[in-house]
Design goal:
The chain is of the alpha/beta class and 97 residues long. It contains three helices and four strands, in the order βαβαβαβ.
């Protein structure tokens, strides 16, 4: 059972994205999913996201045409399967859980 869905809107976050994702997957809680919602980034964010999604079944990647952060979050809500939702910021490392 997925306890929490982390929704992360992304736009050109390649400098911070790995640290953010790593901080989530290295948590003690394992019953979670990460939804990476890419707003059509022009840097290597998509490559980083796809690589994590291919190597960890808890991570899913979605690419949208460039939209607002709010629309990206709402898009993620459509696909979230967790009992709880957490909106994260790709440029920040996520808190320990």
């Amino acid at each position: 059972m997925i306890k929490i869905s982390f929704i992360i809107p992304i736009y050109n976050q390649e400098k911070y994205l790995t640290k953010c994702i790593e901080s989530l997957i290295n948590q003690t809680l394992t019953e979670f999913e990460v939804l990476l919602i890419d707003n059509n980034s022009t840097d290597n964010s998509a490559f980083i996201c796809k690589n994590y999604a291919q190597n960890d079944s808890r991570i899913r990647y979605f690419c949208l045409e460039q939209r607002s952060v709010g629309l990206a979050r709402n898009y993620g809500l459509k696909f979230a399967r967790g009992k709880y939702i957490s909106f994260e910021i790709g440029r920040a490392s996520c808190r320990e859980r």
